[in-house]
Amino acid sequence: MARMRSRGFQVFLPLSVLAILILINLIKGADYFSISIINGALYGNIPNILFGASELVILSIGMTLVTSSSGGQDISVGVAGAITSSVFVRLLLSSGGITWAAILAAFLASCAVGIAIGAFNGALVAVFKVQPMVATLILFTAGRSVAFLIDGRLSPILANDLTSQVGSVIPGVPIQTPIILTAVFIALFAVLLRTTNLKLYSQCVGINQKAARLNGINPVRIKFLTYMILGVCSAVAGFIAVTKAGRHDSVNLLKYVEMDAILAVAIGGNPLGGGTFSIAGSIIGAYTIEVLNRTLLRLEVDTETIKAFKAAFIIILMVIASPVVRQFAARGSRWMRDRLGGSAQAGQR
Could you give all domains of the chain from N- to C-terminal order, each with its CATH number? Predict the structure, then answer.
């Protein structure tokens, strides 16, 4: 019962914040949910939010898994996305002709690079026992220079109809392609968690490594695996980001997205110290961050001031989600139930 209440709180918190932000937008303008069709595709606030948060949602899923197993965060996911997308662009432009087959081959190659990056970070964390944030700081510091070198010290442009369709809309399909890709990725990840013991093993390792080892679970292998999965998430996010932009900017592509990915995990009610997690909470947290950014812009908050408003909002949210506040709320709830129960019994007498 306690576990069910905890899971309910994990999802309730980001949903409550999301509802408050939507209410603010409705007060600002009643047409918030209006959707229009432009060139056969759906556009409006909701489609734009789903479109804008695509990369963040995918990264938050992988970040949740890594946080659960290692008790730390990977601060290099944005840089990893820049590297994998530079490999994608380099291979695609050198393929001799951009076709769907060439795009798929280049994408799979970028995923392989993402797995290699995840294996590198995972080895530092799982094998050499380096603290996750310190281990991933290496790639965070040097990774964009690597991407710049792969680009040939240029900013390659993807001037092609097929890649623009991946980053925007496929003719005849009303939903923007990144939204579809994100939905497919979420579905595949849900199947992975349901058909394997990955979730159980990650949580066990994150809660107590010694107990997990005694139960036949290899903590090194699980941590290593979760970092490689996050590498794939980085590759997919980089693929979507570069096709959206239509060019590869190794300096600015997915810049600072790692911070938002960590925040999405936290807003989703997941403990940043590892253990139990809710993928649904992290996904809602990612969309909440996107709604927050767009809400501040809609309220005509100055671009430079948005970060301050966002920081204040996050501080309030983290305090509400802290274990101290949770325990206080639980005690208050028990006291209220006891009082109401005692009053009901007295009335029956």
Answer: 11-300 (1.10.3470)
